[in-house]
Amino acid sequence: MQKASKIYELFLSVTPGLEVFAKEEIKDLLSSEFFSEVVLDLEDGLTLKSSDLFVLLTTIKFLKIPTRALLRIEEFKARDLPKLYKKLTKINWNEYIPTTENDFKVSSHNSRLFDDRKIIKATKDAISDYQKAQPFKAKYSQLEWSHPPIIFLRFEEDMCQLSIDCSGERLDKRGHKILSAKAPMRESLGAALIRFINENEDSDYPLLDPMAGSGTIVSEYLLQDELNNKRAYNFENFPIFRKLPAKKIEMAPIEITRKAFANDINQDNIKAIKKNLEQYNLEVTHGDFFKMKELNHDNIIIACNLPYGKRIKTQKNIHDFVNDFFSKAQQIGAKSAYAVIPETFIIDKKFKILRSQRINNGGIWIQFVRASFI
Ligand SMILES: C[S@@+](CC[C@H](N)C(=O)[O-])C[C@H]1O[C@@H](n2cnc3c(N)ncnc32)[C@H](O)[C@@H]1O
């Protein structure tokens, strides 16, 4: 009888509140021929499954909203440290992480093993003893890891689920930001905002971020369909991946031509945007948004991560600032305007408002808010 092929599982971690956007993003990606064998399982968070490890791991380069991707390695029962150690010495670590520097993340629920330090020590000992018995090939010691591989051990009812992070640096780090402004927005949040806008606007709209900072929103808009190969991923170092025959990624060509505009009051930010995004279809201006003249494009959509909180001070009361932002967007002729703001901000009843669900942005609950003017 033919042996059934192994199904690999990739767990995607997502900022709380961005799950719906990530789900839509994954569904869109899996609708393309190249990824058609990959299945999305929603039973335990967002998990991608496939027998084709090359294709499964390649999804990581396309997904803009998840923060990390963890490859499930093994699941076993472990009620005490000697048992855990024994199980871990049996893992074929050389297939995944031929390095002696690792990070560890432990979580435990309803399990006899719960002490992080003891669990990490047993894991380190097991990896070290495994590597002494079976040293990895010398060529692998030359590999560069953008972030030491993180080994995740999750205990639930005495079952240990072992996963290895495939991302390296967090996935929202796109690799094209050379210069960064004050309080930059996480790119994953920017990508989710673009999804929210796309859902509510006709395709092919011109986008203006009038307080663009380092340009996260416009860059996520312009690069939304592109594979991100401007950075390294830890999985590219895994010997199990390196041994696989590479497949040519064929995706349907994207017809949409996108145009974006970025403005900021701060000259350093303007320099950063120009440097970060010089090769894209972007017009950059320097000035105060509240003094901006009428737009000379029809149907412009404005989107902005408004300055708020301790790191960025505004002279005005924050509620006035948001309402002035929407009023100004309307006055200069935008079709609609989107703001990323804390959910507690009060918006004038005169605006026709649509809110996304709440998102936990580093401890502050925020929302995408749309005001439409037509
Ligand atoms: C929260 S930051 C935007 C961060 C941006 N989304 C990013 O990811 O880098 C707010 C930006 O608004 C700019 N700003 C504040 N008041 C402004 C104004 N009146 N006109 C134009 N830009 C302004 C600041 O210089 C700052 O770069």
Which features does this protein show?
23% strand; 2 domains; seven-stranded mixed sheet; alpha/beta; 374 residues; binds S-adenosylmethionine; VC0802-like; single chain
Explain what the structure shows.
Strands 8, 9, 10, 11, 12, 13, 14 and 15 form an 8-stranded mixed beta sheet that branches. Strands 2-3-1-4-7-6-5 form a 7-stranded mixed beta sheet. The model has no long low-confidence stretch (mean pLDDT 92). By secondary structure, the protein is an alpha/beta fold. Helix 3 packs parallel to helix 4 (116-133). The protein folds into 2 domains: 8-165, VC0802-like (2-Layer Sandwich), CATH 3.30.2130.30; 187-246 and 255-372, Vaccinia Virus protein VP39 (Rossmann fold, 3-Layer(aba) Sandwich), CATH 3.40.50. The protein has helices spanning 19-30, 53-62, 81-89, 116-133, 187-200, 216-222, 239-242, 267-276, 318-331; strands at 8-13, 39-41, 46-50, 68-77, 103-109, 150-156, 159-165, 207-209, 260-264, 282-286, 301-305, 336-342, 352-355, 359-361, 364-372. The chain binds S-adenosylmethionine.
